[in-house]
Amino acid sequence: MSDQEQTRPAEDRSPPESERTSPERSAAPRTTPQGGEAREQEAESTRRGPGAEELEDRWRRALADLDNLRKRYARELPREREAERAKVAAAFLPVVDNLELALAHAGADDRGAIVSGVRAVRDQAVEVLRNLGYPRYEETGVPFHPEQHEVVSVVDEPDTPAGTVVQVLRPGYGDPGHQLRPAAVAVSRKQE
Fold first, then answer.
1. CA torsion sign, 164 to 166 to 169 to 174?
2. pLDDT tens digit string along 71-85?
3. pTM for the full predicted model
4. Which of 42, 68, 106, 134 could make an S-S bridge to 174, C-beta 3.0–4.6 Å?
5. Under DSSP, is residue 153 helix (H, G, I), strand (E, B) or coil?
6. Regions of the chain where pLDDT drops below 70
7. Which distant-in-sequence residues (6+ apart) come within 8 Å of 106 by Cβ?
8. If 0-12 CB within 10 Å is exposed, 13-18 middle and 19+ buried, where does residue 188 land?
9. DSSP string, 4-36
10. Is 175 helix (H, G, I), strand (E, B) or coil?
């Protein structure tokens, strides 16, 4: 080496310009894919911040918990439905028992006792429905309400205002918006 080259600083020891390649001819820097991926991961972790891994872990755990909860509810739903069906059926068993007693006494000579027995069984069934949240309604003289009533016929009633329920042909069960069925009614028409 010449004295000039030895006196240059270490970082300035680049090849002379004639030995340098042009940018068009220079090959792309060779990096191993692992080194590039590692740098990308470092950059990603720097961008995310120090608590990002912890937050991502918590997020993944919450998703897993939600999925487990969904699966558990899917398993429990049929059992809950069956339990509710059994409760309703058990509530109607006394009604069936009393109907069988009424049928056993059907051969008796006292028809009034049979009718009153059947009426008592009907009242018992209506009470079971009321306890399940479906009270019976069969009021007359009230204004027609489309959420509670189903018009079956329209009749002329000169003494009542138009749109008044004058006869209940089939009672309804439940409250407005939560019904088993609406009441089938006859309504007075508008007088002309």
1. positive
2. 999 999 999 988 888
3. 0.55
4. 134
5. strand
6. 1-36, 38-39, 41-50, 107-108, 192
7. 114
8. buried
9. HHHHS-GGG-PPPTTTSPPTTTPPPPP--HHHH
10. strand
